[in-house]
Specification:
With 456 residues, this protein is α+β, with helices and mostly antiparallel strands. The chain has 3 domains: 2-67, no CATH class; 72-175, Beta-Lactamase; 300-456, Histidine kinase-like ATPase, C-terminal domain (Heat Shock Protein 90, 2-Layer Sandwich), CATH 3.30.565. Helix content is 55%, strand content 20%. α6 (171-244) runs antiparallel to α8 (261-293), α9 (305-317) crosses α10 and α10 packs antiparallel against α11 (416-426). The longest helix has 74 residues, at 171-244. The protein is elongated and about 180 Å long. One of its GO terms (molecular function) is ATP binding. Residues 210-451 form the Histidine kinase domain. Keywords: ATP-binding, Coiled coil, Kinase, Nucleotide-binding, Phosphoprotein, Transferase, Two-component regulatory system.
């Protein structure tokens, strides 16, 4: 522009030169006008870009503000010294203070005295790593409010700490949710225990007839022996009364022969031994029933797997005398755990096998047991086989699912195998069922051997 003014001055001073420089002046003016048009176009483009950026910035700001306002958790942004820079609406509502009055304050001023040291420790620790779920208290509009605090560091683009972001959730909501979750879990656990006990009682009910018969035999034996002992006691009392009254030797011998006291005295030992044997048998049956039906979880103790299997087999087959049983059992197999629970498992397996072979022309049930080395650990095994129709391939993967049963409605709860699987797993063992190649099914129970190296 200064060149243009100088050029104009030259024209004014020497009008004669206008004609000679007219073409040059016109080109200069055209160049100036072109530059001004380009500058104006650039200004317009810049203005449009600025408006677009402002619109995006305003939209982002509105979005950020709406997110902050919608948060139910307390959100506080501080600088690296702990001075508040920004808060959300939840913080304003909790403290009863507007953001303008909070900005610039130290964050610790929002805490009661007993929580300030905890907060200062959080602000120190957050420089090294984020702080998660720190219990702390803030001064609320209606009193102290417990919070679960989360602190994260805020860095600038060069990685320098410039501030701290703090989010806090009132523990009242968390505690309510936690209490509800605990209550639901307790109800679920109670329902599970009731289902387990219900299945136990269902299994026990199937044994009542057999057990009643089993108890009746030794009780009848004891009852008969006691009647005989009473008769012998009456004779002995009469004989001793005669001795006491001073009867002669001949009279006592005659009385002894008439009462057959020699035979009675000879029978006393066998009667007493038989009575004790019957009483011991009753006690064993009662103990087995007590262990089987008990709901208490006692400590794990050694038990004889063979005795458990024999007892379960004896009870079940009382109601199915037509079954041909083939046994290959050692004298003893010592395991460790809850014998009543393992008894329940074996009862379920035998009962399922007996149910499967009902109606077969020649029902056969095989039961074998032993011990073997499995993955370097000595393991007890019990195998129960039947010659029934086997299990459908589609049903095999679901045998241990709760409430799954192949029995007709009213004949099974669908819980027996599921509960048995859980019991065996709790004992550190395995339970599996598969079809036999020649028909029927095989149930295999694996249990850890008792660590005491005893077999009895």
């Amino acid at each position: 522009m200064s060149d243009l003014f100088e050029h104009n001055n030259m024209i004014d001073e020497d009008p004669q030169s206008v004609g000679g420089n007219l073409l040059t002046d016109e080109n200069a003016w055209l160049s100036v006008i072109q530059k001004m048009d380009e500058a104006y176009s650039d200004l317009v483009d810049y203005q449009v870009q600025m408006e677009e950026q402002n619109a995006k910035l305003e939209e982002a700001q509105n979005f950020f503000d709406s997110v902050q306002s919608a948060m139910s958790d307390v959100l506080i942004a501080c600088d690296h010294e702990g001075k508040i820079q920004q808060v959300n609406r939840a913080c304003e509502e909790l403290t009863g203070c507007q953001s303008e009055s909070l900005i610039g304050q130290f964050l610790v001023n929002l805490c009661p005295q007993e929580s300030r040291d905890i907060l200062l420790d959080c602000l120190r620790r957050v420089r090294r790593s984020p702080v998660r779920d720190q219990a702390i208290t803030l001064n609320g509009i209606n009193g102290a409010v417990p919070l679960a605090l989360n602190c994260s560091p805020r860095f600038n683009p060069r990685g320098r700490l410039v501030g701290i972001v703090i989010a806090g959730r009132p523990l009242g909501e968390l505690q309510k949710a936690f209490n509800e979750l605990n209550a639901a879990h307790a109800e679920l656990k109670l329902a599970q225990e009731r289902l387990v006990q219900s299945e136990k009682m269902a299994s026990l009910g199937r044994l009542v007839a057999g057990v009643a018969h089993e108890l009746n035999n030794p009780i009848s034996f004891v009852y008969g022996n006691m009647h005989a002992l009473r008769r012998y006691t009456t004779r002995l009392v009469e004989y001793f009364n005669a001795v006491q009254s001073g009867a002669s030797r001949e009279q006592l011998q005659q009385l002894r022969n008439e009462m057959r006291l020699n035979k009675a005295i000879a029978d006393l030992d066998s009667l007493v031994e038989g009575t004790l044997e019957g009483a011991d048998r009753v006690r064993e049956i009662v103990n087995d029933l007590k262990q089987f039906s008990s709901t208490q979880r006692s400590e794990k103790l050694p038990f004889d797997l063979v005795h458990v299997a024999q007892s379960a087999l004896h009870w079940i087959l009382k109601e199915s005398p037509e079954v041909d049983v083939k046994k290959e059992l050692p004298e003893h197999l010592c395991g460790e755990g809850h014998s009543g629970q393992i008894h329940q498992v074996v009862v379920n397996l035998i009962q399922n096998a007996v149910d499967a072979i009902k109606g077969q022309p020649n029902p056969i049930l095989s039961i074998r047991a032993g011990k073997k080395d499995l993955d370097g650990k000595e393991t007890l095994w019990l195998e129960i086989e039947d010659n029934g129709p086997g299990i459908a391939d589609a049903d095999l993967p679901h045998l241990f699912d709760p409430f799954f049963t192949t029995k007709p409605p009213g004949k099974g709860t669908g819980l027996g195998l599921s509960i048995s699987y859980g019991i065996v797993a709790e004992h550190g063992g395995e339970l599996s069922i598969k079809n036999r190649p020649l028909g029927g099914a095989t149930a295999l129970l694996l249990l850890p051997k008792c660590p005491s190296n005893e077999d009895g």
